[in-house]
Write a structure and sequence with these properties.
By secondary structure, the chain is α+β, with helices and mostly antiparallel strands. It has 9 helices and 20 strands. Strand 11 and strand 12 form a beta hairpin.
Length: 413
């Protein structure tokens, strides 16, 4: 097995401090020939994927790896330090930036969104008893519909445009479809509003503020919220090429709702981020994010499901889920040409991240993701015994209508 050990160093020097419970220097190990790499290479080939880069976090340090091709047109291999894109995994970072502002006392989780965005019209017939709160945007429980196609698939996207323009030609407001807080319904529009909130509170572009105030203290020096592509004025030769389902290479294009998915990073930087999420929130003696807020990620508190006794769900930028026999907090993302996953297991101080530079619908993602999850050695979650409800389940047979419908604009289909 070829092993390259090194101590991670960055130009910001004392600004770099990474965690295992408290933030300490991370040990990084790059893999190129081992059983996991061989297994990942076989899996991505079998599943019709192009390439992948990943990072594993354990109490012993960080392991980086890669397999497959970074650019099919040039037939260049993927490398562990290549930059990649992550789609909606960016939401976890946006949420962490908002929690930073909460820690500083500049934003209140349970304050109405109108306090920070008074010029955005919010059509909410429950306004008097249930206003739309910042927490609801972070939890996807605000009752917002998801995006229209033009908000994510357009050749006219401008990374310099005002975020407000992504609300539509009128740029005026949003409609609430159910009582805020009651139900989970994933909405990229909610995270667009969070990007606008960050800009209103800080007086800066959200990309600039988050790069400096969140990424720099964490030592994530090869990551950015700014637009990066493989071609054009924003081109970076270290960014892996994205690919459509048939393997055709495709450069990244700008989208209007960029806070929901625009983020470029590396496996090593995402390992640093995962370590921070599992820490006490301290960086070089500074409280970057309150530890109670970090522990609240992935712990829903307001929904009807929680009130009915179902603890799993989405909160503050992470999803609490059980897969592969282990329970943790995860986020997934895709942009059509990249697909990414981040999972953390704070109790065991373990995590993994992966970004694949293609996103075919028919791939068995459980196969490739489970290889990384298994490599962490997280103890299996004990089986929860089934409880008898005393209710005949046949009474619940029938056709169900999704309420709310995440994409109401497609209802006629």
């Amino acid at each position: 097995m070829l092993r390259i050990f090194r101590v991670a160093r960055v130009a910001v020097g004392t600004l770099l401090a990474l965690c295992v419970v408290s933030m300490t220097a991370r040990r990084v190990h790059s893999q190129s020939a081992d059983s996991l790499t061989a297994s990942m290479a076989r899996a991505i080939s079998d599943e019709g994927l192009v390439g992948v880069t990943w990072s594993l976090v354990t109490p012993d340090g960080v392991t980086l790896g890669a397999a497959g091709i970074r650019d099919r047109a040039r037939n260049t291999p993927m490398q562990p330090h290549d930059r990649v894109q992550v789609g909606s995994v960016a939401k976890t970072l946006i949420a962490t930036g908002v929690l930073l502002l909460v820690t500083e006392g500049r934003v209140a989780l349970d304050a109405p969104v109108t306090r920070y965005l008074p010029d955005v019209r919010i059509d909410n017939r429950w306004e008097q008893e249930a206003p739309l709160l910042v927490r609801h945007l972070l939890d996807h429980t605000g009752g917002l519909a998801d995006v229209h196609l033009w908000q994510v698939f357009t050749v006219r996207g401008d990374p310099e445009s005002l975020l407000r323009a992504a609300l539509g030609q009128r740029g005026s407001g949003v409609q609430i479809r159910h009582r805020p807080g009651d139900r989970f319904s994933y909405s990229n529009v909610g995270y667009l509003l969070l990007g606008m909130l960050i800009e209103r509170v800080t007086g800066e572009r959200y990309e600039t503020w988050l790069d400096r105030e969140l990424l720099l203290p964490l030592g994530m020096t090869r990551s950015t919220f700014a637009f990066v592509s493989q071609e054009g004025a924003a081109a970076d030769p270290t960014l892996a090429m994205g690919h459509f389902e048939d393997g055709t290479p495709s450069a990244t294009f700008a989208i209007p709702v960029r806070p929901a998915s625009q983020f470029t990073t590396t496996g090593e930087d995402m390992a640093a981020f995962a370590q921070f999420l599992m820490s006490d929130g301290m960086v070089n003696g500074r409280r970057l994010v309150n530890s109670a807020l970090l522990r609240g990620m992935g712990v829903p508190t307001t929904t009807e499901a929680v009130r009915a006794g179902l603890p799993s769900g989405y909160a503050l930028g992470l999803l609490h889920r059980e897969r592969w026999g282990i329970t943790g907090m995860c986020h997934f993302g895709n942009i059509g040409t990249f697909r990414a996953i981040l999972c953390i297991y704070p109790e065991h101080q373990r995590a993994f991240f992966a970004s694949y530079n293609t996103d075919p619908e028919e791939a068995n993602w459980n196969r490739v993701d489970s290889l990384l999850a298994s490599a962490l050695g997280v103890p299996p979650t004990g089986a929860i015994p089934a409880a008898s409800t005393g209710v005949d389940p046949s009474a619940w047979n029938g056709w169900y209508l999704a309420r709310p419908n995440r994409f109401p604009q497609f209802a006629y289909l």
